[in-house]
Amino acid sequence: MRIPRTPGRRTLLGTLLCTLSLVACGPAPEAEPSDNAALGTEKQPVVYGTDNRTDVYAHANATLRARAQQSTVALMSPSDFNATNPNNVTFNASTLRSAYNLCTSERFLDDPTPAFCSGTLIDDDLVLTAGHCITSASACTSTRFVFNFYRTAAGTLQTVTTADIFSCQSIVARQQATVGGRNLDFAIVRLDRPATPRFTPAPIRAGNAALPVGTNVTVIGSGSGIPFKIDSGGSVRDARAGTLDYFVGTTDTFGGNSGSGVYENNGYTVAGILVRGETDYKASGSCNVVNTCTETGCRGEDITYVRPAIDEYCGVATSTRLCAGYPPPPTPVTFTFTATNTNSANQNTVNRDVTLAAGQTLKFGTCTVPGASGTGDTYLRLYNGATQVASNDDACGTLSYASFKATTAGTFQIRAGCYNSGSCSGTVAYTVQ
């Protein structure tokens, strides 16, 4: 098992395992949930057929080059770069070859590897990424969003200045769970300042229809942590039209591509977010090579549809660019609580009754909903009489968020408590739509 890298932190266990394996720890790979593992268990992706990754300067399509140059960000920790000279930021990272002990036959060997995830600018100050890339308020605080991380020619990086580097102000919308039978993994974060007009948001795919099987798609991001690569050779293998949570594609993507924008190739709008897939590298003698599958082989790469992320965002916030046609989000209602020894919100909880009509959706949390906050490890449950209908522990790190759509009218009860027997406090905010 590979210990994933956590933004801003390196654990002693991770260091030990890296030492034992003689391979440096690199960027966080995509998460691959399974029946036997909690969401967040991580495994890396793979190349399907021909390796279609291309440096930005070398790609033939001007629109895709613009998406990389104007809309793509690399997620890094502050320790991954040196901004002593604000007009020429440099990167503190191993080369791809040394980070993964790659054989000399492999591509991009001299690229630096500072990024742990990727993302896409979708509004003036909003970045779309994977939920497992930004898991909590503390992860938000310790993450930097770096534009212009690409090559302008062989061996030459685009100059990055401090004007190209942004901090995370807050997580506005996030899911990393199976909700209502849909396996979702996304986050929309607000930057510390607008990135426009210096950079340009990528357009979002309209509607909520499944991508037809065979649709050609492009992914742009920092696979294995290296400068942005464009892969426009992927296609949709499984649309999952029945759930519309994610689709499966044959993109050539690697750890560090988590959170990358995936574009449909007819209009180049963002259709999804790369979140998980197959193993990247395999041993070849004393070094490693890219793991290669046929176009129809292996498991494929999972790509969260973009629409659930936009739906979640527009349910709690507004945006002229993103939320046209959505009703204005309701004003949140709040209540405060302090609790201890609640046995994971099963006793000694602070409660609030909420009346719902059939078809109404209740969103409640100590995070995500505007006005929500918490200290400690909060735990929320929702009951309809004696029956629990929703619950959440760690939607945002140690804070909680859940959504529930009522199928029948009734009075429901939010119960606010803490994980296990600990103490916590906060403000639960909720909306009814």
SSE order and pairing:
Blueprint: H1 12-21, E1 47-48, E2 53-55, H2 62-71, E3 72-76, E4 81-82, E5 90-91, H3 96-100, E6 117-123, E7 126-129, H4 137-141, E8 144-146, E9 151-153, E10 156-157, E11 165-179, E12 182-191, E13 216-221, E14 229-238, E15 246-249, E16 261-264, E17 270-276, E18 281-284, E19 287-290, E20 292-293, E21 301-305, H5 307-316, E22 333-340, E23 350-356, E24 361-365, E25 373-375, E26 378-384, E27 387-392, E28 401-405, E29 410-418, E30 423-432
Parallel strand pairs: 1-20
Antiparallel strand pairs: 2-14, 3-6, 3-8, 4-5, 6-7, 7-12, 8-11, 9-10, 11-12, 13-14, 13-16, 14-15, 15-21, 16-17, 17-21, 18-19, 22-30, 23-29, 24-28, 24-30, 25-30, 26-27, 26-29
Protein name: Serine protease
EC number: 3.4.21.-
Keywords: Hydrolase, Protease, Serine protease, Signal
| Main β-sheet, spatial strand arrangement | 13-14-15-21-17-16
Number of E-state strands: 30
- The poorly predicted ranges are 1-45
Using the CA coordinates, give the radius of gyration. 21 Å
* Relative helix content: under 10%
Q: How would you classify the helix and strand content by structural class? A: mainly beta
By DSSP (H or I, 4+ residues per run), the number of helices equals 5
For the record, what is the CATH homologous superfamily label of the largest domain?
A: Trypsin-like serine proteases
Per CATH, what is the topology of the largest domain? Thrombin, subunit H
* Relative strand content: 35-45%
CATH architecture field of the largest domain: Beta Barrel
Which shape, going by the Cα principal axes?
globular
What is the mean pLDDT? 88
Number of domains: 2
Q: Outline the biggest β-sheet.
A: 6 strands, antiparallel, barrel
What is the name of the CATH class of the largest domain?
Mainly Beta
What distance lies between the first and last C-alpha atoms, to the nearest angstrom?
42 Å
GO biological process, one term: proteolysis
GO molecular function: serine-type endopeptidase activity
Family: Belongs to the peptidase S1B family.
Pfam families: Trypsin_2
